[in-house]
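Possible regression after last week's pipeline update?

I re-ran a chain I had predicted before the update to compare outputs. Posting the input and the new output here so someone can diff against the archived version. Not blocking, just want to make sure nothing changed silently.
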Amino acid sequence: MVQCGEDKLLLRVQLDLFGTRHLIKTADLTLGTAGCVPTRIHSQNHTVLFDYGLHECGSRLQMIGDFLIYTTHLNHTPDYHGSVIVRTNGAVVPIECRYFRNSNVSSDPIKPTWIPFSSTKSGEGHLSFSLRLMNGDWLTERTLTVYYLGELIHIEASVSMTNHMPLKLYIDRCVATLSPDKDSTPRYSIIDHNGCLLDSKAEDSFSTFVLPGDERELDKLRFDLDAFRFLGDDRSLIFISCHLKVVPVDQRDSRNKACTFQKVYNVWTPLEESSIDICVCCHVGNCGATRELWFGSRGRRDLSEAGLKWEGEASLGPLLILDTDVTKLATESLNEAERRMQERSPGGVESEVVLIVALTVTAVSLISASLLALFLYRKHKQTQVNQ
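New output (post-update):
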């Protein structure tokens, strides 16, 4: 485990370095080209600590793009003492500490990454945004893309944030269209004004942002969308395109929010409690212009007033939205469905009448035959008695 501080590097190493249950020797571990030894040993949990300054142990400082990068490595150099067998190998584990040149590292330190026996990989500039359809339990992904009017569409936005400081995901805007082109017409704004769920204000809508199951899930944002179709269009297909972003966790304001309109109280409310009314701008439809500076083609923006953030596009579709009349027969009771099918079948009523008449005639014949047999039997007995 590596922790990069403002001016310190803290490295915690498990003596079961290879995950083979064979513990390596503390004396075989050093840090950097200077060969710094562990500063603390915890024998009870088989770990050692290296606690040194960023500039110590022969670390190397580089300035690449917008980053200050300190590089060093953990050395494992086993002494086999003349043994003819080995249970561990030597290894060099590369370590990096990356800092943004224009960010406050004391409040937002960067989490480093280290991969044994390989090169350290950086996720800078490679945040991956996505949208998924979820089932009602929000635990499993929904594979069926067919919905009916009146049904809620459960949508989960997410971002992959490996190797970055803690960031929180927001949705700036979402639009629905009849084609994959988000700029095509007709176009319906589902979310706009930096996180106002406009569809929740519609009179017949139950759309709302949904609290995450775990408050620590900063990389996900969920909302329910009441299924709809475009008026006068018989294609029944919609495409949803969203503009997503991540910002530092403590940066919650009118431009970084998730707001739902509560029709009962006629007020916009944030998904999470806030000390300021960050949703008030949803009433006027203007939540402030954002002054942006672009750096190359990496799609990362530096907001001069709001700090660093990353943005990206994600989409869903096509979703097939069917009218509820299509499923009316399927939702009826079995008896009702059978009755309707019987009425629709040729000669259904006539066949039933013929069947009833035939059964009645058969029953009458059987009863008459039984009575006749009984009468003949008694008459025969009476004749025998008289003789």
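Follow-up from reviewer: compared with the archived run. The longest strand covers residues 307-322. Marking as no regression found.
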